[in-house]
Amino acid sequence: MEYRRMGASGLQLSALSFGAWVTFGTTVGRSLARELIAAAWDHGVNFFDNAEVYARGEAERVMGDVLADLRLPRDGWCVSSKVFFGSVAEPRPTQKGLSRKHVFDACHGALRRLRVDYLDLYYCHRPDPDTPVAETVLAMDALIRQGKVLYWGTSEWPAELIVQAHAFAAENGLYPPAMEQPEYNLLHRERVEVEYADLYARFGMGTTTWSPLASGLLTGKYNDSIPADSRLAQKGNDWLRRSVLDPQSTRLQRARAFTMIAAELRIPPATLAIAWCLGNPHVTSVLLGATKLEQLLQNLDALEAGARIDADTWARIEAVTR
Questions:
Q1: How, if at all, do strands 12-14 and 3-5 pair?
Q2: Given 3-state DSSP classes, what are the helix, strand and coil percentages for the chain, each rounded to the nearest 5?
């Protein structure tokens, strides 16, 4: 495993990390979750990602139970949560968003579910148009000073709001956001590569990127149809299916071209897609998700696979996926 500093901070995260989105608490129960987390740990993964909204809190409960059961040394791993959407099906106004109240309540809820005394990373899951950025920065700063959070950051925030948060923090001697969690893959690149381009050096921002496989599109599994056991076929994922397989987009055609190159290289397309993400020096850690052990082990080969690809081949891949 390779470890990378999270931006300008001293925190070293594994280049490949493991997350619970649309898996834990739904298709992945405690037994399989234990197997997956144990395998990730054995391969050097030290960052496990979660959020209040994942399976309405159940994903955090499953992960917390497994981490406690495995008895991994707490100083050897990092865990995150995210706040914004809430953890109940129909949240009332104070049960969602980034107000001081919900930020505090959600943090304490995550601590209970994950069975930890502090969160290593705590993200604002989306920007909140109903809450001043200053209020959220003050709330996050208070949690850090209380020892309940070590680093706070954002997820899918526009650059202008990240700049605003840093400015307010600097003016008032507060802890600024240290990291951002954006989507990043061969088919979704502009925010990480263009919109945030000025923020890495300016603020020392780290990134823990999600969806390296474009919700499975880059694995090739949807090239011809939607497998019955796939994520897009799951009940309640209609919104994800519409997004991934948008008929107005060229995403599927580009994914098919990518998987053809992967076949030529004799590298699983998922492994190759993750390896491409790792090539960006501004990526601290690439979040993996899995519902099968063999799937996770294959994805963990990305570091080794990427080292075998030459510049001309990467150029070919970029040409067919842009």
A1: antiparallel
A2: 45, 15, 40
- Domain enclosing residue 229, as ranges: 3-321
CATH for 282:
3.20.20.100
Q: Which of 54, 122, 151, 222 is catalytic?
A: 54
Cβ proximity of 207 and 182 under 8 Å: yes
* Opening angle at CA 123, ends 278 and 40, nearest 5: 45
pLDDT tens for residues 65-120?
A: 999 999 999 999 999 999 999 999 999 999 999 999 999 999 999 999 999 999 99
CA distance 193 to 237: 28
The larger pLDDT score, comparing residue 146 to residue 226, is at 146
How many Å apart are CA 147 and CA 149, to the nearest integer? Answer: 6
CA quadruple 307, 308, 312, 315: dihedral, nearest 10: -60
Q: How many domains does the chain have?
A: 1
End-to-end, the C-alpha distance of the chain in Å comes to 29
Specify whether 54 is catalytic: yes
Q: Model pTM greater than 0.85?
A: yes
Cα gap 32→239, rounded to integer Å: 26
Q: Are 207 and 179 in contact (CB under 8 A)?
A: yes
DSSP 235-266: TT-HHHHHHHT-TTSSHHHHHHHHHHHHHHHT
* 184 contacts 283 by C-beta, under 8 angstroms: yes
Q: Which residues contact 37 (CB under 8 A, 6 or more apart)?
A: 18, 48, 63, 66, 67, 70
